[in-house]
């Protein structure tokens, strides 16, 4: 599957619509994040939680690489998340000099609740769509996710989670 050197107008239109949808999702995501009873976390902290959920037991250096951030900044984020009870540090069984980072049960519960709230918001909007449009949306999102994953091969970014 090659890349077109010049996208046609439909690609530009889809990218524009996609940008608008992302802006709407950001607002909805923020509302969902603030509604979780355990209190909101910053977007940067949330990225840490997502990464640890996906790559449990990674060390600080690997987390910093995955986030594209400096280790001292990531360490401070983890300090705050540890203080809230969302993250724990444990000695690595491989190296005495390294610590593994893991979500606590409280951190996992936060993500489950957050994802559930966000999916409920999406479902209420998607349920208002005609069935044919819902099917087209599902097909388009699956294709988009596949193309995005293929474009990220070899990099550190990966889809947060995959659903069938």
Count every helix, treating DSSP H or I runs of 4 or more residues as helices: 6
Q: Describe the sheet with the most strands.
A: 2 strands, antiparallel
Number of beta-strand segments: 2
Derived structural class: mainly alpha
- Give the CATH architecture of the domain at 36-119: Orthogonal Bundle
* Low-pLDDT runs: 156-164
CATH class of the domain at 36-119: Mainly Alpha
Strand content: 5-15%
Estimated helix fraction: 55-70%
Major sheet: arrangement of strands: 1-2
CATH superfamily of the domain at 36-119: Winged helix-like DNA-binding domain superfamily/Winged helix DNA-binding domain
Taking the alpha carbons of the first and last residues, their distance comes to: 23 Å
Indicate the overall shape.
Answer: globular
Attribute tags:
DNA-binding transcription factor activity, 164 residues, two-stranded antiparallel ribbon, HTH_MarR-typ, WH-like_DNA-bd_sf, disordered C terminus
Structure overview:
Pfam families: MarR_2. InterPro entries: HTH_MarR-typ (IPR000835), MarR/SlyA-like (IPR039422), WH-like_DNA-bd_sf (IPR036388), WH_DNA-bd_sf (IPR036390). The protein has about 160 residues and is mostly helical. It has a domain at about 35-120: Orthogonal Bundle (Arc Repressor Mutant, subunit A), CATH 1.10.10.10. Helices cover about 65% and strands about 5% of the residues. The chain has helices at about 10-35, 45-55, 60-65, 70-85, 105-125, 130-150, and strands at about 85-90, 100-105. The chain has a two-stranded antiparallel ribbon. Strand 1 (about 85-90) and strand 2 form a beta hairpin. The longest helix is centred in the N-terminal third of the chain and has 27 residues, at about 10-35. It starts with 8 loop residues before the first helix and ends in a 13-residue tail after the last helix.
């Amino acid at each position: 599957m090659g890349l077109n050197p010049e996208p046609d107008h439909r690609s530009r239109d889809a990218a524009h619509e996609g940008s608008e949808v992302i802006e709407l999702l950001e607002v909805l995501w923020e509302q969902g994040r603030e509604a979780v009873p355990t209190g909101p976390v910053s977007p940067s902290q949330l990225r840490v939680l997502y990464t640890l959920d996906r790559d449990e037991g990674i060390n600080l250096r690997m987390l910093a690489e995955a986030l594209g951030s400096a280790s001292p900044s990531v360490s401070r984020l983890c300090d705050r998340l540890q203080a809230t009870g969302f993250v724990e540090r444990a000695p690595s069984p491989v190296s005495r000099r390294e610590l593994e980072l893991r979500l606590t049960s409280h951190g996992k519960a936060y993500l489950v609740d957050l994802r559930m709230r966000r999916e409920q918001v999406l479902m209420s909007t998607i349920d208002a769509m005609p069935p044919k449009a819902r099917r087209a949306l599902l097909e388009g999102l699956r294709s988009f996710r596949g193309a995005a994953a293929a474009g990220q091969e070899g990099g550190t970014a990966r889809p947060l989670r995959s659903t069938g």
